[in-house]
Amino acid sequence: MGGCSSQRVMVMVVVLLLGTSPSIAELQKLKHTPTKADQPLNILVVGDWGRQGTYNQSLVAYQMGIVGEKQNIDFVISTGDNFYDDGLTGVDDPAFYDSFVNIYTAPSLQKTWYNVLGNHDYRGDVEAQLSPILTQKDSRWVCMRSFILDAGIVEFFFVDTTPFRDDYFTDPGEHTYDWSGVLPRDAYLSELLKDVDFALGQSKAKWKIVVGHHTIKSAGHHGNTVEVEQQLLPILKAKNVDAYINGHDHCLEHIVDTESGIHFLTSGGGSKAWKGDIKPWKKEELKLYYDGQGFMTVQITESKADIVFYDIYGKVLHAWSLSKKLNNAA
Ligand SMILES: [Zn+2]
């Protein structure tokens, strides 16, 4: 039929354009519509957690539930390394229940969880964590490689940082990484950086916060992730992001970069912590380093962001406010 074949031609033209165009593919954008009008946005951030409740994961979860209730949180951000040691074996891996569904059971935590992938997640079946089948099993679960979350006054830019690390490719040791969907690596990384740069440039949000698994600045065990620092940080600086939130180092940490003013917030205390594992750092930049378990909350209004770190007893370890002039152009 005439109509049918012209449709087919159109589809082919679109496919060809997509296939050959060097253009910037936009990152997928999700929208969080606040349920509480004129109220601050309340977020809870946890990372490096999935260990079937061991290494105090259950205690952290219990305290998250209490603090989450008090703050009436809107959603949870997970900074990755969701399932130890080697991600999920597939969509039917019981670890999804043992480390997530049956651990974060508090009523206040029955909100959407926005997850990124960590290096340990890449050691399993990556597609399983990205699969909508998991969201069918537990509607809280949202996991993508890189995406934008538009929450009105703030936009979060989730970046897939694991493929940046050279040694996972050149010196993986006994580990096997699932790079399907990432290769060829150079093209994947350059597209991702272009996409993040473009998205940050387009953003009209009052606050811009980038989330990734790997550290950019950290006094912890892993320290700075040189590849991410060299390739992603210049974009964050040029686009004046307010904060970068990560996990990977199993600690709670707040570094203010005196040069750029960017706040580097590590929330990697979801289960196993690394006691006493700290490198020297400039005193005026390191506002908190806590080598035990815990999590972080962020409360955001148009003019203010309050960041608080908690330990497993619910004790406030560190609280910090960032302010923004209301008459600033976004
Ligand atoms: Zn990690």
SSE order:
HEEHEHEHHEEEHHEHHEEEEEEE
What's the number of structural domains? 1
Q: Specify the structural class.
A: alpha/beta
N→C terminal distance: 52 Å
CATH class: Alpha Beta
Radius of gyration: 20 Å
- Beta-strand portion reads 15-25%
Average pLDDT reading: 92
Catalytic activity: a phosphate monoester + H2O = an alcohol + phosphate
Subcellular location: Secreted
Keywords: Glycoprotein, Hydrolase, Iron, Metal-binding, Secreted, Signal, Zinc
Main location: secreted
Structural notes for this entry:
Its EC number is 3.1.3.2. This is Purple acid phosphatase. This protein has 330 residues and is α/β, with parallel strands linked by helices. The chain has a single domain, classed as Metallo-dependent phosphatases (Purple Acid Phosphatase, chain A, domain 2). It is 26% helix and 23% strand. The protein is built from 9 helices and 15 strands. Strands 1-6-7-8-9-11-10-12 form an 8-stranded mixed sheet, covered by helices on one side. Strands 5-4-3-2-13-14-15 form a 7-stranded mixed sheet. Helix 3 (95-101) links the parallel strand 3 (75-78) and strand 4 (113-115). Residues 13-23 have low confidence and may be disordered. The protein binds zinc ion. The site of zinc ion has 6 residues, from loops.
